[in-house]
Amino acid sequence: MPGRRFERGLTIVELLIALGIVGVLAAIGLPKYQDYRERIRVAQAKQDIAVINASIRTYMHDNKAPPDSMSGVIQTGKTDPWGRPYEYLRLEGVKGVAGKARKNKSLVPLNSDFDLYSKGKDGLTAGPLTAPASRDDVIRANDDAFIGLASEYE
Question: Does the residue 32 lie in any domain?
């Protein structure tokens, strides 16, 4: 057609379709990315607990008893991947703390020497692992035989 020029470019409809496709891909990918980041945080907490546990074991070997607190075992200010301090409770050789110990579904204490755990993503916890607030905790159980998510224990 002589006299008519065709402009090259995107129409508004084509632009809206492209934005819609990008939006759908983002809606699919973002939750997967957040799940991935949470798995990384849990893995970091498990690794931190294993390192702290090894430090406490070394202390116990040298002193024949667990420490009263973690202050002499790890550097001050050590926090879990969610920004909260790791929780520690000495059980061995201390009277009256058995009621505060972490417990499994049968309400049996998880450890005989000390409890060491992170409160997890929500920052909440309860004594028994079956409580909803405890399901995302990263725990040490069975006197070192298990380190992982409370929801994966038993």
Answer: yes
In a domain, 1, yes or no: no
Q: Which domain holds residue 92?
A: 12-152
HEC letters along the chain: CCCCCCCCCCCHHHHHHHHHHHHHHHHHHHHHHHHHHHHHHHHHHHHHHHHHHHHHHHHHHHHCCCCCCHHHCCCCCCECCCCCECEEEECCCCCCCHHHCCECCCCCECCCCEEEEECCCCCCCCCECCCHHHCCCEEEECCCCEEEEHHHCC
pLDDT tens digits, residue range 87-133? Answer: 999 998 778 777 788 999 888 999 999 999 999 999 999 888 999 99
- Its pTM stands at 0.80
Report percent pLDDT > 90 for the chain.
65
Indicate which CATH number applies to the domain containing 53.
Answer: 3.30.700
Tell me the mean pLDDT in the region 30-57: 94
